[in-house]
Amino acid sequence: MKHGLGHRVTERPLPFGNQTHIPIHLERKTNVVGRVSAFERKMVMAFIKLINKKYKVEIKKKGFPRLCRRFHTLGDARKFARDIESSMDSGTFEDYTGASGTTLKEILIKYRDVKTFFKKGAREENGTINFLIKHKIAMNSLMRLRSHHIYKLMKELAVTRKPATVKKFVNIICHSWRVAKREWGVNLPAENPCDLVTLPKVDDARDRILTREEYVKLLGACSNSNLPILKDVVIFASSVGARQGEILKLKRDHIDFAKKQITFFDTKNTADRTIPVPDNVLEILKKYKFGSFVFNTLARRLRKHFKKACKEVEITDFRFHDLRAYFCTNALLSGMSIAEVSAVSGHKDWSQLKRYTRIKPEDLLQKINNVVNLK
């Protein structure tokens, strides 16, 4: 029987208890068929055993991991053994047994416990991962996970979720795959199935900007809120462009009243930021003399009362985070440069700041009238 590489394959059943023990030995120069010697048996890489009506292939070779696989037919077992031996000899062998026995669910659980736990948005990402763990896609082994599985998941999620949310689900699967391959020693194919699908286009740009009249009405509603600090928080956010998390984490010892500065520590982009404080904000900060935190309230309580105040004065499609855009827009219109606004808001470049800048054509009408026509 000729081997694909021109070698002769001698296969002779040997008694092995109640099993059939078939060594596969590649010989170049001999046509001798008979009992395999002890020396020859050491050179054999693959053995096939018949166990419970299935053919178990066991492959051993120095420098390679031990492989075992079961087949229903002897032909399939022999083909597998020859293919593996050939790839080992040619140096193209890749051991995917670890990936075959590992499901996406196991990888996601480990990623949640090892990676997500230390992230700033751990709570939100935990919810996303827990959803994926319970989904049927998580039952696939890493070797059986294909791009069409990812596509079906995206199609299912798109029914009730926005494109940006769908993209987050796929990115978590994609990153957990890469971490398993690069850091956890799971031998996976070079091609990530998530890279083969086209992610939905995300167009979440907002052009909602609060007018001066709406801002005055909003402050009036905040004055009557059951959350006493709501008005001060809104003025603070609209005056310095701080994020909600930065505002609620601000402590009294982060304020330098002498220099009229405050420092935000451990911000969203991990960098600390020191900004100047306008006089109206400084007066607000002086009111809160007790406690560690300046604005001592929970994020969900703040959002609840802010939403209630907006509803009371019929301000629609406006979120607390839009106060940050309100500051950036007003700061640029007042004459501050992009670099100056970025230093206060904490944006690292113009592409990020641009999303928060919502300058309308009518805002530029007066300035364009002042443009000098050059001849």
Features:
single chain, 375 residues, alpha+beta, hpI Integrase, Chain A, 3 domains, 3-stranded antiparallel β-sheet, 16 helices, 43% helix, elongated, disordered N terminus
Written overview of the protein:
This protein has 375 residues and is of the alpha+beta class. The protein folds into three domains: 86 residues, no CATH class; 93 residues; 155 residues, Intergrase catalytic core (hpI Integrase, Chain A, Orthogonal Bundle), CATH 1.10.443.10. The chain is 43% helix and 11% strand. Strands 1, 2, 3, 4, 5 and 6 form a six-stranded antiparallel beta sheet that branches. A hairpin with a 2-residue loop joins strand 2 and strand 3. The N and C termini lie far apart (92 Å). The N terminus is likely disordered.
How many domains, in number, for the residues? Answer: 3
The rough form would be described as elongated
Structural class: alpha+beta
Largest sheet, in brief, is:
6 strands, antiparallel
Name of the CATH class of the largest domain:
Mainly Alpha
Helix proportion of residues, in percent? Answer: 40-55%
Q: How far is the first residue's CA from the last residue's CA?
A: 92 Å
Any guess at the CATH architecture of the largest domain?
Orthogonal Bundle
Number of DSSP strand runs: 9
Instruction: Give the CATH superfamily of the largest domain.
Output: Intergrase catalytic core
